[in-house]
Amino acid sequence: MPVLCEAISVIVRCSSIEKYFKGGKENFIALIPNQTSCSDGELYRIGFMNPFDVKKYIDVLESNGLQFQKHTGLSLKRFKNRKTNDIVVVDQFQGPTTDCDWIEFGQFNVGDDDVLVSTCWLFEGTRFGLGPQISEKQLQNFAVPNGWDPSHANEIEFKSGSDDIGHLTFLRHENGLDVYFDKEKGTEVYTTETEKRPPKLH
């Protein structure tokens, strides 16, 4: 079953949590920083709106025993490298941001309005280079956070750390996210970054 890959998603192998995470699954769940998580039993997905929060969360995962990328160079840490990484970051539009041989990424139409949604799923079989390799059974359902609705997918914008937010006006804080009004596009923008919050709209 695929998991939702909206905005920027940190994808973690469930088997890695059981094997390597300090405190196991219970502690892993306790350290999830927002309400965007979902799991299909093979992968855990946690969503973010900007790369700053992604990095902070990956630091937490690594400090608790998971491996994001293999250590290189002269560091002694490279001797602790495992063959397979436990974490991959997936961009909603571009897919995995680093090489990863244990997931596949695809976009599928869901809901009454056939909204295009990005997803990924565990895949460790032989790849034939014929596009996404997913069974019909896997496509019937996919894991999403509680309360997620495909009708909201096209309304969400996320921004990189280099984006200029001068044209955004803060509206409200909602479900762990800051909501801004983009004066140039006339739409709402969601982000978890609060350090540079513009003045509130009156």
Radius of gyration: 18 Å
Class by SSE composition: alpha+beta
| Through-space gap between termini | 45 Å
Portion of residues in beta strands equals: 25-35%
Averaging pLDDT over every residue, what do you get? 80
Summarize the main sheet: 5 strands, antiparallel
Taken from the alpha-carbon principal axes, the silhouette is globular
Percentage of residues assigned to helices: 10-25%
Unreliable residue stretches: 193-202
**Number of self-contained structural domains:** 2
Spatial ordering of strands, largest sheet: 3-4-2-5-6
Number of distinct beta strands: 11
Oligomer: single chain
Count of helical stretches: 4
- The helix-strand sequence is EEHHEEHEEEEHEEE
Report on this structure.
With 202 residues, the protein is α+β, with helices and mostly antiparallel strands. The chain folds into two domains: 3-125 and 140-147, no CATH class; 157-202. The chain is built from four helices and eleven strands; from the N terminus they run E-E-H-H-E-E-H-E-E-E-E-H-E-E-E. It has helices spanning 14-20, 24-30, 51-63, 136-139, and strands at 3-4, 8-13, 38-39, 43-48, 87-91, 95-96, 103-110, 115-122, 168-174, 177-182, 187-191. It has a five-stranded antiparallel beta sheet with strand order 3-4-2-5-6. Mean pLDDT is 80; it is low at 193-202.
